[in-house]
Design brief:
120 residues, alpha+beta, two-stranded antiparallel sheet, 6 strands, 27% helix, 45% strand
């Protein structure tokens, strides 16, 4: 009786592959959604926050033969000035956070009304 040699891929390779595919697809969906979704253009400023420049580690798992190797890289995020506005959009109260310039951040006060529809 002749038996063919069948190579069975270890479960952790399939798991790593599935995780990477889900991260790629999820990230792609989020990226497209964040660009094309309708945004609220005006409302009351309910929060302001500054985020200093920083690095954030990202771990990627790479299959290497019969094992996996974690690879750590640091992603750089520049400083940002952000405001959160609240308003009614399509009949529902909603909050949106926007990045603004440093000068806009200093100008805009919490509780003030902003209208970004004039910018476009």
């Amino acid at each position: 009786m002749h038996h063919d040699l069948v190579m069975i891929t270890p479960w952790y390779v399939w798991l790593t592959f599935a995780l990477l595919i889900s991260i790629i697809l999820g990230g792609s969906f989020w990226f497209v959604w964040s660009i094309y979704r309708p945004k609220m253009k005006e409302g009351e400023v309910v929060d302001k926050f500054y985020c200093p420049a920083h690095y954030q580690p990202m771990i990627t798992v790479i299959p290497m033969g019969k094992t996996v190797m974690p690879f750590v890289s640091n992603i750089y995020y520049g400083e940002s000035w952000n405001i959160t506005i609240e308003g009614v959009f399509r009949g529902k109260t909603r909050q949106e956070t926007y990045s603004v310039s440093e000068s806009q951040y200093k100008e805009i006060k919490k509780g003030s009304y902003v209208d970004f529809s004039k910018d476009n």
